[in-house]
């Protein structure tokens, strides 16, 4: 596993999310080190996806700050930014339930993600000027290369819903990578995968971190995957962060064992 380099790419301070009278997150402080694979675990209802939704602009936290540092010396406050702006700045995510455009091709799914980086506006798209055509060609070439890199090249022209489940999971990750993030959020990427596919996912997550030179934050219930792939693990329980440590320490933490891993 790769060690951290040059400080955190993401840090939160006092993140609190209140829905009516329900406190879903309470004073959450954590960091994701640059170049690391970091896991966020906890029982169902602990607030993990709520935190992801805060980080990606779907929810605006009731209190607290979220600081994104895509490169050293640059700090961006995320709390008041819209989801499309956060994506443009370099944070991409997948979802627990696959959200592909099922009736579009594999290539078209990736091209849609590429449009977040396109410079041509509505006028360029309508007029089809030379710069717009060149940009679209460049995006198509980039998308093909990305699909090839992650084993989906032969399926580029297949309809997304016809892919095997594991390949659909991989496509959702590739679509997120097409936005060219510096931080990738994976929401239960092993959900629905069999044992062999989960082993492949372990290798894939490491490969993405190293190949794309980015940082990864993942929510995951498969503890063997978490303990294998993570540099650091944060544990939420009822919206409260109860532990942050390397996986070998988390495995032995009495609070974590009681709240999540089981008393045995």
Describe this structure in words.
The protein has 264 residues and is of the alpha/beta class. The chain has helices at 48-55, 83-89, 106-114, 122-127, 130-149, 165-177, 195-212, 223-229, 247-252, 254-261; strands at 8-19, 22-33, 37-41, 63-68, 76-77, 91-93, 183-187, 215-219, 232-237, 240-245. It folds into two domains: 1-90 and 180-264, Rossmann fold (3-Layer(aba) Sandwich), CATH 3.40.50.300; 100-179, no CATH class. Helix 3 (106-114) packs across helix 5 and helix 3 packs parallel to helix 6. The chain is globular and about 60 Å long. 36% of the residues are buried.
Secondary structure blueprint with pairings:
Layout: E1 8-19, E2 22-33, E3 37-41, H1 48-55, E4 63-68, E5 76-77, H2 83-89, E6 91-93, H3 106-114, H4 122-127, H5 130-149, H6 165-177, E7 183-187, H7 195-212, E8 215-219, H8 223-229, E9 232-237, E10 240-245, H9 247-252, H10 254-261
Parallel strand pairs: 3-8, 3-9, 6-7, 7-8
Antiparallel strand pairs: 1-2, 1-4, 4-5, 9-10
Helix pairs in contact: 3-5, 3-6
Keywords:
23% strand, alpha/beta, globular, Rossmann fold, four-stranded antiparallel beta sheet, 264 residues, six-stranded mixed beta sheet, 10 helices, 2 domains
